[in-house]
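Suppose you are handed a protein chain with no further information: no name, no annotation, nothing but its sequence. What can you learn? This example shows the usual starting point.
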Amino acid sequence: MRIVGLSAFYHDSAAALVVDGKIVAAAQEERFTRKKHDASFPHHALSYCLDEARTKLDGIDYVVFYDKPFLKFERLLETYLAFAPKGFRSFRMAIPLWLREKLFQKQLLRDELKRYAADFDLESKLLFTEHHQSHAASAFFPSPFEEAAVLTMDGVGEWATTSTGLGRGNDLKILKELHFPHSLGLLYSAFTYYTGFKVNSGEYKVMGLAPYGEPKFAQTILDNLIDVKPDGSFRLDQSYFDYCTGLRMTNEKFDRLFGAPPRNPETLLTQREMDLAASVQAVTEEIVLRLTRSLAAETGLPNLCLAGGVALNCVANGKVLRDGAFKSIWIQPAAGDAGGAVGAALAAYHLYKKGPRNTSGAIDGMRGSYLGPAFDDDDAAQRLTAAGARFVRLDDDALVARAAGDLQAGKALGWFQGAMEFGPRALGNRSIIADARSPAMQSALNLKVKYRESFRPFAPAVLRSDVSDWFDLDCDSPYMLLVADVARQRQRAMTAEEHALFGIEKVNVPRSEIPAVTHVDYSARVQTVHEDTNPRFHALLTAFKARTGCPVLVNTSFNVRGEPIVGTPEDAFRCFMGTELDALAVGNLYLVKDEQDAALKRDYKGAFALD
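A reasonable first move is to predict its three-dimensional structure. Written in structure tokens, the prediction is:
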């Protein structure tokens, strides 16, 4: 049975293909269109999935959409009625759009799908799941657990903002829900907006900024904005927010509470923004811990699955793991809306068609999240030659040796290999990699390669066999979704003078043997690399360790700020020529910057809208 899942029309549109319960392909539309967080119907991603199935749309058994548009429209109407007459301006702006596009989304989907197969039986083959059911299905069904508790947290689906569930075998039941407007995701997004970052894009910047500050405003948040119960349930005081009926996240009352208007984007960050970030992060962690402890007590299960945008908060995830209420946790790597496409397809297979589930024989059902398009060397060579690239073709061993040698020499390397990752993280196939031992690498990559804010941390990729020797972690973390401290024996104590430095000035102070991936609080967002899911990246780390004694590399996504992760060899070459990367490996093809045609260099820094 072949089932396609779709997410679209809000942000991070995607398509996924599930064949007899196995996830075969998945991709986000942004990787093809080069428009970050592209919300349009995922034509390119769907075409890719159909190509992987070697079929047309009429060979697909079901197409499943990741939420129910009419329930969203119902929520919009009820919200405006509840807050009337406040917010009439935004109501007047929103309703024509919803009447034109959202309310009739089923018809819009039908029209788009008929472009692929005019006689596709939409009445019986087009299905809809609820938003949080899609998230929960994406969390449980690919997990390695036969039985698990499931926690979904995001901004809002139709009505649900937080939900708990119970998965057993091929069954999944939602137990409880918290409803809009009370939302942990929207609380975090409110502070994303207030600290001058872009909502639905900049939340991870707030998380990265938090360690530079102190949670001085945490009690203010708990006393005024949110009432949190011992079990983690909560209510937000809507008098401080404007997301229900306005055109912004917060209002003047929020400004008065925190003593200033929102920071203007791209202006200088101050200690105040760092303290605000630390505060909302601390509150988020406390709520998530209360929710997980309550869910563990209620279900008595040792395993937890997480999805929804809040599950991308890897700092909170790490604290849930260390808290010990659950013995094991598994997080859907595409925890945001893109992953809803996978969840929708799996929900149709397991819940609607009662298809069997097999959890044996692998880390999980996401196959390392390497689910996107791949390019063989002949295809890549043709594409790169057409783009004007100069390269040599190496065998496998020579490629790994050449790359490891360049990394040891302090070079920054574009690493384009195999199938593209699904989800927001590059996991060693569309990555920029570098030596984690270099004290200058974090700043150099941010400012000269990624063209992004200097405070943002980089993640370490480490051989799974060596993780506990370098980090306070001894479990699989293949998707870069758990934060742990650098191992004590690898840390370097900061001097009193270094401790006294202001906020971001601390970023250039080496704090461990791997300073390029050690955040200011000694933490790191760890990716464990496994030979069975990514043998080439594993071989590179192994070769680097043989040369240096260190099994850790910097791993960051292959893109610049505001750009989606590169999807094709041409994308990789353009990014290579527009940044200060030193070398590029595309499959077995190796490119050196100094050997390229200087006329092909481009000003890449301003090529994409800021995120």
